[in-house]
Specification:
GO molecular function: 23S rRNA (guanine(1835)-N(2))-methyltransferase activity; nucleic acid binding
CATH topology of the largest domain: Rossmann fold
Catalytic activity: guanosine(1835) in 23S rRNA + S-adenosyl-L-methionine = N(2)-methylguanosine(1835) in 23S rRNA + S-adenosyl-L-homocysteine + H(+)
CATH architecture of the largest domain: 3-Layer(aba) Sandwich
Oligomer: single chain
Radius of gyration: 22 Å
Number of domains: 2
Largest sheet: 7 strands, mixed
Subcellular location: Cytoplasm
Family: Belongs to the methyltransferase superfamily. RlmG family.
Strand order of the largest sheet: 5-4-3-6-7-9-8
Function: Specifically methylates the guanine in position 1835 (m2G1835) of 23S rRNA.
Number of strands: 20
């Protein structure tokens, strides 16, 4: 396991979810660059530091013994990693205050360190929320690997914070330092909204949601084929995003008991808003979680899922495979997992390794809808 060695600490860090024979690190050269730069600049014990998008807690665990740290991000898996990495390195659980991205991290802050996220809309919303939260003389520094640093990230820093100075590249990482200027209070363009025609719904989408401007084509292919039942089935929308699958299913199945779960806090926030708008006070369970990891075994009759194929900038089917395993554990015997997936991903073959029956419900030139029976 690689060790993150900086002037602040030597840390043994895990990613989440933990994977056998994990080859990916829980930190990268941009984390090292930020920490080394910060050490050169100096840091006092009473410095109030806000960390944004600190993937697996590398920055927070490094800085926690040296200053007052608040960490904010949109990943529940990231929060789990932070908790585990604090314990793993003998740091107190309360050494870092964590604020989900669905809430505002209240300052004032003397220093803001930002890992530039994959979704620049999330960065924009976070910069907007910094208005009024910076102490006099505050510093704002963003870091990223060059391959994940678009020019527009610097433009957003300049627009919402102030003039930006780019560092030299070190180990293919770069820092952007913004000097805060007094600016009028910005108006956030988030959440965005779009209309669904059938059924007629207006869906609200917080900044970090996938396909904020319109329904993604996989879900569009899935919706006409959602199963129907008059029974009070226990149903989960796994990786719910803005909640559209679970909401449309609930509208067509009035007795169903729904659970909507996602690892994104902003997704759960959006799903909660959309559920209330579409279904009022109808009972529902909404939570940010590591998929169905906390769901009791054999407690669900049906799981609906449009699985993701990336975690941050890492592309692969490892999250989908994990979701399939979680679904199998949570389903009763005879329970069903319904998914939509790109044809080329070969989910049919993977599901056959876990479920006793797998059949194709429908298909488009790009997508397949599959039903797997436990």
């Amino acid at each position: 396991m690689p060790i993150l060695a900086t002037p602040f600490a030597q840390l043994d860090l895990l990613r989440q979810p933990e994977m056998p024979n994990e080859s990916l690190q829980a930190f990268d050269a941009a984390d090292e660059y930020l920490l080394n730069h910060l050490h050169e600049q100096g840091l006092s014990a009473d410095t109030r530091v806000l960390l944004l998008n600190d993937g697996f807690g590398a920055l927070a665990a490094s800085l926690a013994p040296h200053c007052r740290v608040t960490s904010s991000g949109d990943s529940h898996l990231g929060q789990l990693a932070l908790q585990k990495n604090l314990a793993r390195n003998n740091l107190a659980a309360d050494a870092v205050r964590f604020v989900p991205a669905s809430e505002v991290a209240a300052g004032p802050f003397d220093l803001v360190l930002i890992r530039v996220p994959k979704t620049l809309a999330l960065l924009e919303e976070q910069l907007i929320r910094l208005h009024g939260q910076l102490a006099p003389g505050a510093r704002v520094i963003a870091g990223a690997m060059l391959k994940h640093l678009p020019r527009s990230a610097g433009d957003l820093l300049e627009q919402y914070i102030g003039p930006v100075q780019a560092s030299l590249a070190v180990k293919k990482a770069r820092l952007l330092s913004a000097t805060p200027q007094t600016k009028p209070a910005p108006t956030s363009p988030y959440p965005t909204r779009y209309l669904l025609e059938k059924p007629k719904l207006e869906l609200s989408n917080q900044a970090n949601l996938f396909c904020r401007e319109g329904l993604d084509i996989g879900t569009r292919a899935f919706l006409p084929h959602l199963p129907k039942s008059l029974l009070p089935l226990r149903v989960a929308d796994l990786g719910c995003g803005n909640g559209v699958l679970g909401i449309v299913y609930a509208l067509g199945n009035p007795e169903a008991q729904l659970t909507l779960v996602d690892e994104s806090y902003m997704a759960v926030q959006s799903a909660a808003d959309n559920w209330r708008a579409a279904l009022g006070e109808r009972a529902v369970t909404l939570r940010a979680d590591d998929g169905l990891a906390e769901q009791p075994e054999q407690s669900l009759d049906l799981v609906l899922c449009n699985p993701p194929f990336h975690q941050q900038q890492v592309v692969g089917d490892f999250l989908a495979w994990r979701m399939f395993q979680q679904a199998r554990a949570a389903l009763v015997t005879g329970g069903e997992l319904w998914i939509v997936g790109n044809r080329h991903l070969g989910y049919h073959t993977k599901l056959k390794r876990l479920f006793r029956g797998v059949e194709q419900v429908a298909a488009t030139p790009k997508f397949v809808i599959l039903k797997a029976t436990r």
